[in-house]
Amino acid sequence: MIEISEQANLPTQFGDFKIQAFREKKSFKGETYLLEHLVIKTFDIPENPLVRVHSECLTGDTLLSLKCDCGGELNLALSRIAKEQGMLIYLRQEGRGIGLFNKVNAYALQDKGLDTIEANLALGFKEDERDYRIVKFIFDYYKLHKIRLLTNNPAKIRAFETMIALTREPIIVQCNIHNAHYLEVKKTQMGHLL
Fold first, then answer.
1. What is the pTM of this model?
2. Which of the chain's ends, N or C, has fewer CB atoms near its CB within 10 Å?
3. Which residues pair with 86 in a beta bridge?
């Protein structure tokens, strides 16, 4: 069962949005927990909106870590959505779905030389544990039929093509010395369109 909050105003540095939360009960590795996802949307949604499905990254989104491109992508997405109209679906799937605790353990393995995929595998996870079923529910809730998907991830494109008509728009942010290897792994091993 999915619970849906009321909508509320969210003025930001990028523009004025509406927010709405979607709460779902999930099970993962024998544990049950609640995930509260957030939709950040413009007041008007066009027929073919710009949409970013962004997985939570506390270190990148909030702490502005330079180890990934997440915070930069989030900021670029909100800036573009404010101008072009659409929505950002913020999924509470930290660390490609392994959670913050395990993500920090994966970071520790990366500090010892493993790449992002090797670290997840060493901890007993798949390279990506995310589940996108809630996204279909959100698309249907807002009666979306086609979108302009802001992504570089071919796995997201494949997943969402089964849910909605879409065209892909790239989201490219500046590389730095701390995330260059991470982005190279995403490009060469995960097929990201960078």
1. 0.89
2. N
3. 50
